[in-house]
Amino acid sequence: MRQTPHFITNDEQVVKRLIRENPWATYVSNTASGLVASHYATLLEEDAEGISIVSHFGRPDEQLHELGQHEMLVIVQGPHGYISPGWYAEGDVIPTWNHVTAHLYGTPEVLGDDENFEVLQRLVDHFESRMPHPVSLDYDEQHARRIARGTVGLRIRVTRMDARLKLSQNKPAEVRDTIITALAADGPYAQPGLADEMRRIHPSHPDAGS
Fold first, then answer.
1. Which residues pair with 208 in a beta bridge?
2. Where do the segments described as Disordered lie (predicted)?
3. Side-chain half-sphere CA neighbours of 47 within 13 A
4. 20: part of which helix (H) or strand (E)?
5. Domain assignment of residue 87, yes or no
6. What's the confidence (pLDDT) of residue 89?
7. Which of 61, 68, 69, 135 is deepest in the core (most CB within 10 A)?
8. Rounded to the nearest 5°, which phi and psi values hold at 71?
9. What is the domain count for the chain?
10. CA distance linking residue 64 with residue 80, whole number of Å
11. Is 205 a domain residue?
């Protein structure tokens, strides 16, 4: 990403929240055959030191990515949206795009069959927990284990990261307040999630904490 120091965050807790709230991640590998990208549901390992994530790949993606042979980039994208200069002070006519994004780097650890199945169970249980009648792989474990053979589990312990919160920090407080209000409204570029992210780092906004 572009080197903009005032948008960078090194706060692991901020990045962990981003992963929790945006579990659909992009996995990128620079392989012997060129660049490869895939998209998979991802879970943060809450009890791990540092930042550690687990996921599963459908076969043959693990071969295409050469899993475990080199460093991988994982992109986690949070709320983002167009910022109109109509929300700025008069005379400021250059639009931009606000976003919350993390680039995570690490070499994947390929999981054994049993741990892969445990990860699959955790993924299903995590997302099913919001359902009125959650489904579990335990309902038919034998069948689920057969299906699991078509997947490969992986763990990435993040060794470095590049995380950005580009949330109009370079604008005056009154302009930021106007942007937050516009994003939270019903206009053509409404993005309530992005407004929430801005409130977190600009707590002076009247709606902060609401």
1. none
2. 191-210
3. 0
4. helix 12-21
5. yes
6. 87
7. 61
8. -65, 145
9. 1
10. 30
11. no
Residue at token pair 């949206």: 81
Does residue 163 lie within any of the structural domains?
yes
Which residue's structure tokens are 């945006």?
Answer: 22
Q: What is the DSSP string of 24-90?
A: EEEEEEEETTEEEEEEEEEEE-TTSSS-EEEEEEETTHHHHTTTTSS-EEEEEEEEEEEE-GGGS-T
**Peptide bond before 60: cis, by omega within 30 degrees of 0?**
yes
- How far apart are the C-alpha atoms of 179 and 168, rounded to whole Å? 9
What is the extent of the structural domain holding 34?
5-171
In a domain, 191, yes or no: no
CATH number at residue 84: 2.30.110.10
| Count of other CB atoms within 10 angstroms of residue 50 | 12
Q: How far is CA 130 from CA 4, 116, 118, 157, in A?
A: 38, 23, 19, 27
Residues near 50 by beta carbon (within 8 Å), at least 6 away in sequence: 12, 157, 158
pLDDT digits (tens, 9 = 90+) for 22-47: 999 999 999 999 999 999 999 999 99
pLDDT tens-place string over residues 170-187: 999 999 999 999 999 999
